[in-house]
Amino acid sequence: MHPARSILTAAGVIHALHLILVHFRLKSKRSDTFPNEDRSEYVKVQGSRTASNARHARGLPGLHTPGLEGFALDNPIGPTIGGRGANPITVTNADELLSAVQGDAPKIIYLDGELQPSGRLRVGSHTTLLGKGKGANIIGEGISIVNATNVIARNIGIRFVEGDDAMAIHNSTRVWVDHCEFESQFSVEIGPDFYDGQLDIVRASDWITVSNNYFHDHWKVSLIGNSDILRDVDFGHLHITYHHNYWRNLGTRGPAGRFGHQHIYNNLYEDYLYQAIHSRSDNQVLVEGNKFIGNTPIAVDTYGLVIPEDSPNTCVCGDEELDGFANLGAKNDFGDSLVNITQVGSFKKAPYKYTLTPVKNVEKVVRANAGLGNIKV
C-alpha cells in the first residue's frame, strides 16, 4: 500500500472529496477520447528546429555532449557542455566539494563517496559535476544553481534535504541534470512541508534537460515557476525537457509547471498520491510516450485547482489558479489513471530532434537505466 494512503486525517477526507469530484468529472475524458493524440510509435523524431537552433547544436565541432537531448542541447544560446576543456579534479571530502563547485571558471569535478556538507553547494557557471559509481551521494544538504549558465550534474545522489530543495535552479540557463537520484521520506506523519522540492526550477530559468533520474519517496517533487508575482518574469522562459525519468511513490508535481513550456516524454510513473503531470497558470506541456503503472488518480491535469498538499495556502480548501494547457503527442499508456485536459495547447511539436522509445518498452528501458551507476564515469 502507498505509505501516505495508510492514514486518513480529517483534512485528508476533504482532499479525497476533491479527487472524487474530479474523478466523476473526468469519466468521459479518458485518454483514448482525445483526437489530437498521435497513435504512432517513433524511434527518431524530427522536430521543428530553427536554423539558429540547428547551427548552435550541430554546427560547432566538438560541442555535442553524448546522451544529451532536448532544450539543454538545442536552444538559441548553444549546447550545454559544462566545464569541457578544464582539467578534472576528484573530491573526497565535503569541504573540498563546497569549494570546488564555486566560481565561473570552467571546471570538471568528480565526486567520490558519500559526503555530508555543512551547507548547500553553490554551483557556478561552466561546471560539470560527476559522481563515481553508485556511491556518490550528498546527504542532508542540497545543490543550488543560481544566476549560472552551462552546468551539468550527472550520477549524483541527493538525499534527505530537510526544509529546502534537494536541487534548486534559479535564474539559470543551459542545465543538464542526468542519472541522478533524489530521495526523501514520504508519509502522512511527515507531511508535505517537512521537505521542500526535489528539483525546483524557477525565476526565469531556461533551456534545461532533466533525464534518466530516479525521483522517489517524496511529497512535492518538481515545481516549475513558483510565484504569481513573478509571472511576468517567468513568462517566455522555463523551456524544460523531462525524459526517461522514473517517478515512484510520490505525492504531487511530476512535474507541476507554471508559465513555461515542458516536453515530457518516455517517463515511467508508479504510484502518485494525487496528480502526476500538472500544467497550470497558462503553462504548456507536450506529453508523449509515458508509461503509468500502479495507482495514480490523475496522470495529466490542466485544471487550476491546487490541493492543500501542493499549495502555500493553509486553507484546507487549497487554492485555485488559471488552467494550463496540454497536448498529447505520441501514444502514452496511462493505465488506470485519468486524464483531465481542460485546454488543448499550442505546444504541439518539440523544436528539436529526439529519440522516442516506443511506449511498450518504456518501463523496461527506464527501470534499467534511471538513477545512479548506469553511466561510465
Automatic annotation (TrEMBL):
Pfam family, one: Pectate_lyase_4
Domain Pectate lyase: 84-297
Gene Ontology BP terms: polysaccharide catabolic process
Record protein name field: Polysaccharide lyase family 1 protein
Cellular component, GO annotation: extracellular region
Organism in which the protein naturally occurs: Zasmidium cellare ATCC 36951
Record GO terms (molecular function): pectate lyase activity
Places the protein is found: Secreted
Lineage: Eukaryota, Fungi, Dikarya, Ascomycota, Pezizomycotina
Family indicated by similarity: Belongs to the polysaccharide lyase 1 family.
